[in-house]
Amino acid sequence: MSCVIVQQWVSVDGFLAGPAGERDVFAAVQDFSASEAHNMALLKSVDEVLLGRRTYESFAAFWPTAAGEPMARQVNALSKTVCSTTLTEAPWGSHAPARIVADAVEHVRSRREQRCRTIVWGSASVMRALFAAGEVDQLELFVAPVVLGDGTPLLERGDPPLPLRLRETETWPAGVVRIRYTT
User: What is the pLDDT of residue 23?
Assistant: First the structure.
């Protein structure tokens, strides 16, 4: 069965990043072992990761050479798609390059016919476009123990309401809470 999972790290007050960028959220977390273990299990059932251009550039600069990271082998082997209207190629170190598509919504709809399981990591613009089009099946939040007060919100003011049904919660070390919803 096809499924689109959006996974985001957020602050307690709902920001993906603070005024200084995403490091504001991650700086509050000292232990990522639980999220790594969770994602290693989750990635066994995922067919592709869908990224926006900025998230792709950040990930492509890190993961291909992150041999010591527990998730590196899985992340590098996974099929990747980048939503971008400016990139002409999307290399991934010595691994297979990412595929480039211009429209995330159109891409997800075409993959549903193939019963593809897609995970969207970060990539706020891709996430918002998929939410607006009704193409998200699950939202998984990793809530970091920090209040930022300002920054990049999960959703923009004026975005349509997003009814969610709580499926599970889990508390991890260092005060991180994982929350999974279905749409």
Answer: 76
Phi first, then psi, for residue 94 (nearest 5°) are -85, 5
- Residue 1 is predicted with a pLDDT of 74
Per residue in 117-171, pLDDT (tens digit) is 999 998 999 999 999 999 999 999 999 999 999 999 998 887 778 889 999 999 9
For tokens 């792709």, the residue is 56
For the whole model, what pTM was predicted?
A: 0.93
- Bridge partners of 119? 5, 49
The b/e string for 123-162 (b: 16+ C-beta within 10 A; e otherwise) is bbebbbbbbeeebbbbbbbbbbebebeebbbbbeeeeeee
CA distance 139 to 119: 10
CA–CA separation, 158 and 137 (whole Å): 21
Amino acid at 35: S
Whole-angstrom Cα distance, residue 111 to residue 108? Answer: 5
Residue 22: the pLDDT is: 67
CB of 82 within 8 A of CB of 90?
yes
